[in-house]
Amino acid sequence: MQNKGLIKFFAILFALVSIYQLSFTFVSSKVKSDAKSFAGGNPEKEVKYLDSIGKEKVFSLGFTDFTFNEVKDKQINKGLDLEGGINVTLQISVKDILKGLSNNSKNPVFNKSLADATANKKGNQAYIDAFFEAFEANSKGSVKLASPDIFANRSLQGEGGVTFQMTDAQVQKVIKRKVDESVESAFGVLRKRIDKFGVTQPNIQKLGESGQILVELPGAKDIDRIKKLLQSTAQLEFWETYKVEEIGNFIMAANEALKKTEIAKVETKTVAKDSLSALLTDGKDSTATKKGNNPIIDKIVAQGGGPVLGLFSPKDTATINSYFKRADIRILLAGEQRYAKFVWGKPTTIKDAKEKEVEVVELYALKGNRDNVASMGGGVVTDASDTFDQLGKPAVSMQMNNVGAKEWEELTGRAYTQKSNIAIVLDDIVYSAPGVSSGPIAGGRSEISGQFDVTETKDLANVLRAGKLPAAAEIIQSEVVGPSLGQEAIDNGTNSAVIGLLLVSLWMMIYYGKAGWYANIALAVNLLFMFGILASLGAVLTLPGIAGIVLTMGTAVDANIIIYERAKEELRSGKTLDEAVKASYSWTGAMRSIVDANVTHILTGAVLFIFGSGPIKGFATTLLIGIITSLFTSIFIARIFIDKNIAGKNDLSFVTKFSKNFFTNFHFDFLGIKKWTYLFSIVVTIVSIASIATHGFDQGVDFVGGRTFQVRFEKSMEPELVKEELTAVFGSAEVKIFGEDNQLKITTKYKIQETGSAADEDVNKKLFESLKKHYASGMTYDKFINAYEGKRLGVVQASKVGPTVAEDIKTNAYWAVLGAMLIVGLYLVISFRKWQYSLGAIAAVAHDVIFVLGVYSLLWKYMPFGMEIDQHFIAAILTVIGYSMNDTVIVYDRVREFLDGKTKGSFSEIVNKSINSTMSRTINTSLTMIFVLLIMFIFGGESIRGFIFAMLIGIIIGTYSSLFIATPVLVDTISKDEKHEVEVKHQEVQA
Of 928 and 469, which is predicted with more confidence? Predict the structure, then answer.
C-alpha cells in the first residue's frame, strides 16, 4: 500500500480529533448528572442550576478552558425519543397572512380562492401556490390581484409594494416575499418566547419555504402549557363593552326567535333566577321559564352583572356561538349594537346551588364597528412583567409607548365618564373587563388581572414581551416523549449495540481468524470516527439513529469480507500472500465491487436524508456517516495490520479450521431453476398485490393523520374493553397491546381537523376521564398527561399528525421510494454500460419492495408487535433497496468479470460459475446484517420492532432476489447475438 505513513498520520489525527470532540459530550453528561442530583427531581431547579453555571469553566485542556455553555454546544445532542420532551411542527397560516395583506378584503373572488386553496391543496403543494391557482381559475381574467380592494391597497403601496399597473405574475412575486417576511417574523417571535420559557437546549428552525416551523423542547414536561404558549398569536386588544342591561333586550328577543326553530323538551324544573331571566319574565315564574323552553336562557349557569351577560358551561359555548352568528338572530340587534362582537372569558370554577364546583365561562358583548376593529390595539405594548394586583393575586403589568399611552388615557377617560368597562382581550378571550373608577389613566401603564396562577402570568408576560404572531400558528404534527421512556430507549439501544458489536466481532474471528481480528480493530476505529463526526456536526442522536449505528456494524465488515474472499481466491490460484493481498485490494479485485455497492448505498441514504424528517433524518445521517467511515477503516486501517503481518512473514490465510472448506466446491445451477424461482416470485407478487388490495395496511398516523397515545396501566388490560370505552367518547378508536400487556397504543382521529391548544387539551381530558377508573385514586390529570422523572403510569408518549402534513408525508414517501429506484438504476446503467444490468437490479428491488409490503399487509392483524406503514417503515424500505442493490452489485461485478475473462462454457454456464464464486461473500455479508437486525429486533425496544422487522425480511428476500431474480433477468434480456459473441470469445481464449 502506497503512502502508508500518510494514511497512518491521518488515521491518528482523525482519532485524536474524534476523542477531542467526544470529550465535550462526556463532560456535559457529567455536569447534567450533577445538576439532576442537585435538583432532586425538580425540573425548574435543574434548569436554574444549569443556567447559573452556564458561564463557569467546567472543562480544561491545560492550554484552554471551556464554560458549560461552550461544552453544551459541542456535545452530541439526544433526540426527544432518548431525552424526553416535546417536538412540535407549527404551520403559520398563510391564509391569515394573505387576508392581512389584503386588509381583510371582502372581494368574493378573493375569498372563494382562499377557501378553494384550503380544500384543493395537493400533497406537498404550498398553500400560496394553491391560492394563486384557485384565483386564476375563479377570476378568469375578470379580477386582478392588483385590484385596489385586494392587494393594491394603501398598506401595500409604496416602494417594493403593489401598484395598480402590475400583472398577476408581478403581484405574485411581491406577495410571496411578503409572506416569507411574515413567516420570518413569526419565527423570531416564537424564538423569543421559547428562549424565555426555560428548557435546556431548545431547538427552533424553519422547514424550507413551507411556512412550517419545527420546535423541539428537550426535557419539557407541561404539555398543555407549552402548546398554549406556542399557538397563542398574542393578539392583544382593548374593547369597550356593553352592560347586561344594554344587551338584555337582544338576548330576550333572540331567545324568543330561537324557540321557533330549536326543538326542546319541556321539563317542570324551573330555572334559577338571574339578571337575564328576570328581564325575560319580569321576575314572574311562568311556563316560559320552564327548563327546556328557552334555547339561550336555559343554558345560563349563573347570573352575570356589569359587562358579564351570564355564566355558561364550556360545552354550550359552541351552540351559543352558532346562535349569535345566524343572520335571522343578528338582525334583532338594533342601531350600533348590530356590530356587537360576542366573546367568552377565561374558564373558571364556581359553586352551584348544591355547593358542587362546576366550570363556567363568562359571556361578553364588545362594542364593535363596521370594520370590526378594536378601540385600541396591543401593538403599543413595549414591555410586560408578571406581578401581583392590590389583592395579592397574580397579574400582568404592561407598559405602553407614547402613542399607546395617549390612546389609553382617552379610552379610560371615556370609560370613566360613561361608567363603562374596558375588556382586555387576548386572542379573542376576555381576561378581564375592569371599570375605571378614578379618572383617566395617564402614563401608559396598565394591568391585566383575572383568574390566573403564577405560571399563567409568567407565560402571558412572556408572549406579550415577544410580540404577536403575524398569523395563527397551528400544530400540525407533534410528539411527546416522557423522560422514563427516553431512558428505556437509551438502555435498549445500548444493549442492542453492545450485543450486535460482540456478535459481529465473534463471527469475524471464527470465520477469518487473524484477519477477522484486524477487521474488528477497523470496526472499533470506525465507531470512534462515527461518533467523532456526529459530535463535530452537532448531530442529534435518535433511537433510529442508534439503529443506524448498529446497522453500520453489520455493513462495516462488508468491505473486509469482499476483500478477504477475493484474497482467498487469489491464494487458491497459487499466488503468494503478498500478491494475493495486492490483487484483492486492486480495482480489478475487490475495489470495483466495493465502490459500486457503496455508491448505491450512499444514493439511497441521500434520498432518505432529503425526504425524511426528524428521527428518520437522524437514521439517514448515521447511515451515511457510517458508510463513509467504514469504507476508510475497512480499506486502510485493516490493510495496515495485514501489511505488517506480511512484513513480519507471519502466516495469514483468511480462514480457520471451521471455515476452511466453506463454499470451496460449491456448484449450483442457479439459472437452471429460474422457471421455478420466477413462478415462486410471480405467485408471491400476485398474493402480495391481492392482499394489499383487500387487506390493505395498518397505516400509521404519519400517513392518515390522527392522535396516538402510548398509555401504561397498573395491570394488564383488555384492548377490546378499552376500545369500547373510548369509542363511546371519541366516536372511534383503535386500541392494541404495545409490548407488555399493561401498555396500550391508542389511536383516534377525534378533533384532528380542529386546531388550537383547546382541542388538544379537550382530547387529553376526555382520555383521562375515560381511563382514570383503571388507576388507583391518586392518579390525577397532570400525572396522567404530563411528563416527569420516574413516570411509569399514564401517557408515556403521544403524537399528533394533522391530515395536511400526513398527505405531505405520504407524497414524500412515494417520491422517495420511486426516486431511490430510478437514481440507483441510472447509476448502474452508467457503471455497467448495459441497460440489462439496471433492469435486472430494478426488477429485483421492485420484487423485494412488493414482497415486504405483502408481508406487512398479510400479517399486520396477527403479529404481536406493531406493523404500521409510517415514516419508519419507508426508511426501512429505502434501506432494503440499498442493501438489495448492494447484494446485486456484488453478484453483477463478478458476472461482468467472468464474462470479460477466460472461463470456458456456454453463456449460462459462465454466469452460473460467476454466481457460485460469490456465494461465500454473499452469504457472509447477509449473515452479518441478519445478526445485527435480529439483535435489534429482540433487544431494541417495541417502538422500532416493526421498523427492524421490515429490514430483516427485506435483507433475506434481497439476498434471494439478487441470486434468483436479478441475474436471470439479466441473462434473459441479453440478446442471442451477444451471448454467442461471448461464447465464441471464450472458446478462442481457451484455444
Answer: 928
